[in-house]
Amino acid sequence: xxxxxxxxxxxxxxxxxxxxxxxxxxxxxxxxxxxxxxxxxxxxxxxxxxxxxxxxxxxxxxxxxxxxxxxxxxxxxxxxxxxxxxxxxxxxxxxxxxxxxxxxxxxxxxxxxxxxxxxxxxxxxxxxxxxxxxxxxxxxxxxxxxxxxxxxxxxxxxxxxxxxxxxxxxxxxxxxxxxxxxxxxxxxxxxxxxxxxxxxxxxxxxxxxxxxxxxxxxxxxxxxxxxxxxxxxxxxxxxxxxxxxxxxxxxxxxxxxxxxxxxxxxxxxxxxxxxxxxxxxxxxxxxxxxxxxxxxxxxxxxxxxxxxxxxxxxxxxxxxxxxxxxxxxxxxxxxxxxxxxxxxxxxxxxxxxxxxxxxxxxxxxxxxxxxxxxxxxxxxxxxxxxxxxxxxxxxxxxxxxxxxxxxxxxxxxxxxxxxxxxxxxxxxxxxxxxxxxxxxxxxxxxxxxxxxxxxxxxxxxxxxxxxxxxxxxxxxxxxxxxxxxxxxx
Length: 489
Ligand code: NAD
Prior knowledge:
By secondary structure, the protein is an alpha/beta fold. It has 16 helices and 20 strands. It has 2 domains: 13-253 and 453-473, Aldehyde Dehydrogenase, Chain A, domain 1 (3-Layer(aba) Sandwich), CATH 3.40.605; 257-434, Aldehyde Dehydrogenase, Chain A, domain 2. Strands 14-15-16-13-12-17-18 form a 7-stranded mixed sheet, with helices on both faces. It has helices spanning 46-65, 68-84, 86-97, 101-119, 121-124, 159-170, 185-197, 211-219, 232-244, 267-279, 299-310, 324-339, 375-378, 394-402, 417-426, 462-469; strands at 13-15, 18-20, 26-30, 37-42, 128-133, 136-144, 147-151, 174-178, 204-206, 225-229, 248-252, 257-261, 289-295, 343-346, 365-368, 385-391, 409-413, 431-434, 454-455, 470-478.
């Protein structure tokens, strides 16, 4: 039985090291576990953004002039606070997002890992040096960009901000974070922990809000770079608007990940991985398995998947989806596919959790004989639903994957190294799994998809993000009067 007694203080903006009340209208924050209101969040306006940007701009000279090693010390302390408060932070994620407690703990653990990567920057961001001609040296250093912003989605309220905030700050930038207005409490807590870790005032600021404040961020003349993670629809808007204002921008969008299952795949490993990928975080992750392409006869694997998926109980191993509207949308996709002739092998519609009747649950859903033209095969459903599309051979399966507008992740399940290599070579996606349903690259490797799953050049994490958060200064030096002169010097 899930009784939510917890209420949180109203979420406030965090500017210049102060939690600030806002005059703007507020939105209720609702827990998907029960549908109850747990807090409120302000929908801030331009004045509050101006204040946060001014705070970041005035913190920038001192913060950026510190050595990388000095800045890193704050993040070592911050990492210890994350470890100390791991359970409490996970509980916030669990309540505001609706994912299970074990998924929430994993989200905090990943945030710790991301902070550890930021702590390793002094070993990675060392600059470059070369004697380019006799007695003449070229040196390349990475410098921070200035005031930057990150706009976050609802599905990982704690981890996704950790994709960007520690790296951007440790590299010397000052930031304005705009959390998802649906799940703003985790970020609020993040600010409290940064304060405790001794981050100087103004280096990290939070301005809460929705569409209006995102547009203001894209237009603000003093913000140099905007990173965004969310749906493709909004990623497109943000990328166009920020770059048209001559800002650096990377905007990660939605996904429709294809998992190609060959008949020789290991039955148990494949069934458990595919089901975990489609149902983990209630299917609300951009790395979730959305389409399984079954090549030839894979009926034995599908029947094992049904058994595995049936054992996943909403409210226990499966969390809630984010809202009543999301549940309605997911159930509608299932109904439309069924009406169009697809076969629902396991139906999660109408899931109810005893004691949490107001919660927004959809059970694991497996739909067979879906055709590529159906909306459920093309569009992002973002729920614990997998569609199965049948293909006669591997070429046909790869062709199906290639035709997706998205390109976040793709995976192949097989015991054949040669066939796996074929999929790796030909899949049209940025992150590939071989016998892995959620192929998230770990730092220092970077996270980012292709096509409509990402607009912009760099990835959002790992070494690629260092490029995004810095600019290069190139210095050429000669002290020795006897040094060679060449046609350039
Ligand atoms: P969303 O696009 O609705 O919202 C993301 C952010 O944009 C929020 O902060 C929101 O306030 C703001 N926003 C919403 N509508 C806007 C508008 N019209 N104009 C300007 N700003 C607007 O995304 P979401 O529902 O919060 O998150 C789920 C989506 O994020 C899914 O599509 C998922 O695949 C995607 N996602 C992608 C990745 C990735 O790495 N590619 C990671 C996590 C989530």
